[in-house]
Write a structure and sequence with these properties.
Layout (H helix, E strand, L loop, with lengths): L1 H11 L1 E6 L21 H22 L11 H6 L1 E2 L1 H8 L5 H24 L10 H4 L5 H20 L6 H20 L36 E6 L3 H7 L4 E6 L5 H5 L11 E2 L5 E2 L42 H23 L1 H7 L6 H12 L13 E2 L6 H21 L29 E6 L4 H17 L1
Antiparallel strand pairs: 1-8, 2-7, 3-4, 5-6
Helix pairs in contact: 2-4, 2-5, 2-11, 4-5, 5-8, 5-13, 7-8, 8-11, 11-12
InterPro entries: VWA7 (IPR052577), VWA7_N (IPR056862)
Pfam families: VWA7_N
Protein name: VWA7 N-terminal domain-containing protein
Length: about 475
């Protein structure tokens, strides 16, 4: 199986080494074609949404329905793993599987649009190096202000009853990326916090930040690692040998003891006013850290990002799952707060939870014509009870996601199957080969020659039609 995946991936797909300023936006295919166990931006967003959606459906559909057996044992409902379809079936026991697919279509594509614009933050020229978009370089007031401003677009569009909510979904995806990055890029986890930061996205001041001229990291606590490159790594990383850092206690004790916020610096990031901001020299600020982050070798060496479980990309890889837990909880909290602010009817409108027959049929027709999810996958599950077994929940999610990735390689031409995500942004004109980005991870995308890929797909579909 692994051999076949590797052959298919080499023949049809390229993995390009491009910037990620946060949790990687979609699943990694690592060396030899094997899937990484890192949790991605898109999974974080989908997990947070599932939790909010299931609570929404429980309150608005399941509880009012006295004939629904879920009412008799709500503990089971909140403790079990649910996909979006699972929750929708429990809320609408009268629907067949075909009706569930029909009526959840608009909602899933709305969520997919949110996740797409979440991922685009790492690729859009306006945001890929914008420090405030990723909570980098200690730009916390700007980071929180950005979330506040983007939220205003979402709120205004919904409260004004706009029928076209593209801008709202775009802004929501962008702000969730920034919100999630806070936990991966800052030292919130290392400060041993027990809950999410409730101030981010509410106030510009979200905590006491280390002074601009204050050292935050030390060379101590980081071990330099060097390894030879495989052929796969030579293709994707384009540098050899690989030099990276394993860091554990490299944040200065005084920063921890005083509970000061800091985040990693990189080279040549942008301020909100289009100025250049780079890691200060001779000051021992923390780096973001990655095999391609040139600032990682500037004292203090190493870095503090928790974007992945791979030390090549994340010096604090051991804290990845804790950062993910905070990011999912923060996503869920933000969506729950939107629901409280809007009320159930307008929240349902934002995500097209109860579409009209006309709207549902329109999406069904688009799927029949080849419309596909970019990032959404129906296999992702979440438990609403986040107090126990959270890491096991994540591992269950990963297993199903990896199975989904496997199906991509085994179904290069999945005719009419919208539920197999493409992980492809090429139709948006995104240059995923841009090597000017400073911190990076390998991304799974469609073939470099997208025109050729489309011709192959069209030809295969035509073959099926002619049979």
């Amino acid at each position: 199986m692994a051999t076949n995946i590797y052959i298919y991936s080499l023949f049809y797909l390229f993995i390009y080494f491009t910037s990620t300023n946060g949790f990687i936006p979609q699943p990694i295919i690592a060396d030899g074609g094997q899937s990484s166990d890192s949790i991605t931006h898109t999974e974080i967003t989908q997990l947070g949404f599932i939790r909010t959606l299931c609570r929404y459906l429980y309150d608005t559909r399941i509880v009012p329905n006295k004939n629904n057996t879920v009412n008799k044992n709500p503990q089971d409902y909140f403790a079990k793993q649910h996909t979006i379809d699972d929750c929708y079936k429990l809320a609408h026991p009268e629907y067949s599987d075909a009706q569930v697919t029909l009526y959840t279509g608009p909602m899933k594509f709305a969520l997919d649009l949110v996740m797409t614009h979440n991922a685009l933050v790492d690729f859009d020229p306006k945001t890929k190096k914008l420090s405030s978009a990723h909570c980098d370089s200690e730009a916390f007031p700007n980071c929180s202000r950005r979330i506040i401003q983007l939220k205003k677009t979402v709120v205004d569009d919904v409260l004004n009853n706009k029928t076209d909510l593209t801008n709202a979904h775009t802004s929501l995806g962008q702000l969730l990326h920034t919100l999630q990055d806070f936990y991966s890029h800052s030292n919130w986890v290392e400060l041993n916090k027990t809950d999410v930061n409730i101030l981010i996205g509410q106030n510009e001041t979200i905590g006491t930040v280390a002074a601009p001229d204050q050292a935050t990291c030390t060379n101590n606590g980081c071990v330099t690692k060097t390894q030879d490159c495989s052929i796969w790594q030579r293709i994707t990383l384009r540098k050899c040998p690989l030099v990276y850092y394993d860091c554990t206690n490299n944040i200065l004790p005084e920063i921890i003891n005083k509970q000061l916020l800091t985040s990693g610096y990189l080279l040549d990031q942008m301020t909100d006013s289009n100025g250049i901001i780079s890691k200060p020299l001779n000051l021992s600020k923390c780096s973001h850290g990655s095999v391609s982050d040139e600032s990682t070798s500037i004292p203090a060496i190493g870095g503090i990002n928790k974007d992945s479980t791979n030390l090549i990309f994340s010096p604090h890889a051991n804290l990845h799952f804790i950062a993910v837990e905070y990011a999912i909880n923060a996503t869920e909290r933000f969506l729950n707060d939107l629901r409280k602010q809007f009320g159930d009817e307008k929240f349902g409108h934002l995500f097209l939870i109860d579409p009209t027959d006309i709207a549902a049929k329109a999406v069904e027709d688009e799927v029949a014509k080849g419309k596909r999810f970019r990032f959404f996958t129906p296999l992702v599950t979440a438990s609403l009870n986040k107090s126990t077994g959270f890491l096991m929940d994540l591992k269950n999610t990963l297993t199903k996601t990896i199975n989904s990735i496997t199906s991509i390689f085994n179904n290069i031409f999945p005719s009419g199957k919208a539920n197999i995500p493409t992980f492809d942004l090429s139709d948006l004109g995104i240059n995923i080969e841009d090597m000017s980005n400073s911190d990076a991870a390998p991304y799974l995308f469609a073939s470099k020659n997208t025109g050729r890929k489309k011709r192959l797909i069209d030809a295969r579909r035509q073959q099926k039609i002619n049979k």
